[in-house]
């Protein structure tokens, strides 16, 4: 299939490479010339703008952009995709953005007779390179079935979450809970250790008791408890504090739009924001435990 791909960053570049590996023909665009050059070297063709990409005979377009403002400009701008793409071409946006913007762009696409899916991912850059991402997909069942084989070349779990925007709803709800649960584990671990408990013994109790969760048993924030967690390598790699802060911002904005309280999410957002303001935005988000630990060097 001839596929267009826009946004060749940390996630988009390895995803696009997996489409090439699966035998698809690729036309790509990114504002960064270096990013485009990398994909051209791997066998893709460069387009000079989103409009130029849209005017080729692509059958499907995937985008992987930083945030909602970029998605709006690439799809809705005068030199954007919708003003130039043929009707019927399937559009898939895999950027993480707020659900209401995703629905707005999908409605504009429908008005141009272009079906659209929102398909944000989890799995990080490692999953993007390995082709094992989870795609949370919003859109009609028919469009989902059309997009599924292409998504399957980049991911392992492809889940239909319901109508337009629901992929983003799933992503935002999960990451809201993750941000909160990490704070809960950080607080409980810090209290236990401050009261004299060994962190590994405490984590073992939690992980066989009712406090257990992914943040405690797979990604424990206390250094030394889990050998492979970012906490045991100075909080490097993993999922950055600033990315968690972005996702909590999306959750809180989406909540505001539907007047849904997110009490703990709002507090979590402020705590990650304070931690980022102290210069820790690039550290893995589990480093938030350093807000609690009297003995820690953040
Ligand atoms: P990134 O900043 O590495 O890449 C974004 C790319 O988009 C860059 O190459 C940039 O030049 C390009 N771009 C920006 N504006 C553009 C425009 N108008 N036209 C064309 N290209 C443009 O970001 P990333 O880490 O690849 O993340 C992409 C999306 O995936 C984000 O929404 C992020 O939240 C989400 N995400 C990231 C991760 C992760 O671990 N990095 C995990 C899950 C989801």
Automatic annotation (TrEMBL):
Gene Ontology BP annotations: L-valine catabolic process
Enzyme class, UniProt record, top EC level: oxidoreductase
6-phosphogluconate dehydrogenase NADP-binding domain: residues covered: 3-162
EC number assigned by the record: 1.1.1.31
Reaction equation(s) it catalyzes: 3-hydroxy-2-methylpropanoate + NAD(+) = 2-methyl-3-oxopropanoate + NADH + H(+)
Occurrences of domain 3-hydroxyisobutyrate dehydrogenase-like NAD-binding (ranges): 165-292
GO molecular function, one term: 3-hydroxyisobutyrate dehydrogenase activity
Keywords from the named record: Branched-chain amino acid catabolism, NAD, Oxidoreductase
Domain of life, source organism: Bacteria
Keyword Coiled coil included in the entry's annotation: no
Family label: Belongs to the HIBADH-related family.
NCBIfam families linked: HIBADH
The name this protein goes by in its record: 3-hydroxyisobutyrate dehydrogenase
